[in-house]
Specification:
12 helices, 344 residues, mainly alpha
Length: 344
């Protein structure tokens, strides 16, 4: 199957949105349009990432005999998440230890297991732990990987009814939500995006059930819906939860229509590079931002100085992204040597 570069474009856009959002979200005195009426750049980026995850996993698992192999699935997901996460965490942990000269004694040491498993950011709301990198998203995507095979199986088996079933269950879930964890961080609240990504990969990429007229109609409708939800604010929290999902899907459908820009060699290379490194960028950018804010927290900056700080933020992201990428790749190579030595 020929690689569909529209997913690379969406991943690149999501990566840029999340990096920009996490820098400007705390700069309350800057009048940038960071938050929309019913969503934020960060919320939109997260929706895009979950849609891409649903689509990319579907295409990956649809290769070959299309049979589900649990061991292979777990091994691939492990390699995709943990080596880079652990590398970034160890670097951040040692840097924090160098600065503070201690490991926080107020946090029970057994909670380090939350960090080892990547669940520390997701469950930080419940009690303090040793969270440093990855935010809540890492835990959410790991849980998504756990339920994904079942969702894919049901969609392949009952494609005509599953979308309706998922929509109904999601509405019930939102209307009856009572957990302490924020709905927008709960992994199961992103089933909508994941399922949409599966259907997009199944019908628009794999089976190519579309034409130019349909593309134009979908694009115009998506723009209209996105702009409407951008301009009109809903007071009801549940309605905003639905609006966030619709905005994320609409933005996805808008962005994929611009995949023609990938025909330009320079743009194609830039987009693919950012897309390929998006996970590493995601892991390091928030920690770098936090360290910069510690340095500049009590400093009043002009807009020009904020721009300079933003440039420094981007410049620091690049080398640390490369470090995490290179070290984690070495880690993966070591892991892959184990079965070879056993079989030797």
């Amino acid at each position: 199957m020929k690689r569909d570069k529209s997913l690379d474009l969406v991943r690149c856009v999501a990566c840029i949105l999340i990096v920009v959002y996490h820098f400007f979200v705390e700069q309350k005195d800057i009048s940038f349009g960071i938050s929309t009426s019913n969503n934020s750049l960060g919320g939109l980026a997260v929706s895009l990432f979950f849609i891409i995850s649903g689509a990319a996993l579907y295409l990956s698992m649809s290769k070959g005999d299309n049979r589900f192999h649990a061991g292979t699935y777990i091994y691939k997901r492990f390699k995709a998440i943990y080596p880079a996460f652990w590398t970034a965490y160890i670097i951040a942990f040692l840097y924090r230890f160098f600065l503070t000269r201690q490991i926080d004694p107020s946090i029970p040491i057994h909670r380090i297991w939350l960090s080892i498993t990547g669940m520390d950011g997701l469950f930080l709301y419940a009690a303090p732990n040793f969270y440093l990198v990855g935010d809540w998203f890492i835990g959410a995507i790991i849980i998504t990987y756990m339920y994904y095979p079942l969702v894919k199986y049901l969609i392949d088996r009952f494609p005509k009814v599953m979308w309706a079933v998922v929509l109904v269950l999601f509405i019930v879930y939102v209307q009856t939500y009572f957990y302490q964890m924020e709905l927008r961080h709960n992994p199961f609240s992103f089933v909508i995006e994941v399922v949409f990504g599966i259907y997009y990969a199944k019908y628009f990429i794999k089976e190519k059930r579309y034409n130019k007229t349909a593309n134009i109609i979908v694009f115009i409708a998506s723009v209209v819906v996105f702009v409407f939800l951008l301009l009109f604010y809903f007071d009801n929290e549940n309605i905003r939860a639905y609006a966030m999902k619709i905005m994320g899907i609409a933005l996805f459908l808008i962005v994929v229509q611009f995949k023609f820009i990938m025909n330009n060699a320079a743009l194609n290379m830039s987009v693919c590079n950012i897309s390929a490194n998006s996970y590493y960028i995601f892991l390091v950018h928030h920690f770098i931002f936090a360290q910069l804010m510690m340095r500049f927290s009590n400093v009043v900056l002009s807009k020009v100085e904020y721009a300079a700080l933003f440039m420094l933020y981007i410049i620091l992201i690049i080398p640390f992204t490369l470090i995490v990428k290179v070290v984690s790749k070495k880690f993966i190579n070591l892991i892959e040597l184990i079965p070879k030595k056993i079989n030797a």
